[in-house]
Fold this sequence. Notes:
Layout: H1 2-5, E1 10-13, H2 29-57, E2 61-64, E3 85-88, H3 97-100, H4 103-110, H5 121-132, E4 143-146
Parallel strand pairs: 1-2, 3-4
Amino acid sequence: TLEKFGGIDILVSNAAVNPTIGGVLDCPETAWDKIFEVNVKNALQLSQLVVPHMQQRGGGSIVYVSSVAGFQPFNVAPDNIRVNCVAPGIVNTKFSSVLIENPAAAEKLQENILLGRFAEPKEMAGLVSFLCSSDASYITGETIVVAGGLPSR
């Protein structure tokens, strides 16, 4: 692409595999590994390859082709099993310490958080406890963003 067209302006990541039929809970580990490798890891690797070239050209466009299946919960609700997702922002944990303990990075990140601070683990625990309780007995298939106002959409 660089030789023939002089640069890279567009990446459309449309490669995907689905080597098995059936529900995700019946998916063999080898098939899951293949799905992750092609559908997720390769999209990252392609982006890592092309973004520097787009930056040199002053911009570009990346489109990841996904699936509506990402918005469909596991089909276990008829068994009275609810499945939900908590999508936290930056939480003060060992996992995020590389960001939080770097003053320049922490300051830059907090500029985009409307509450102006990082979350504490207990702030995630309350929501998780709620989702596991009978108070949430009619909630399933949802993703709840808990990010202190950090833009998520």
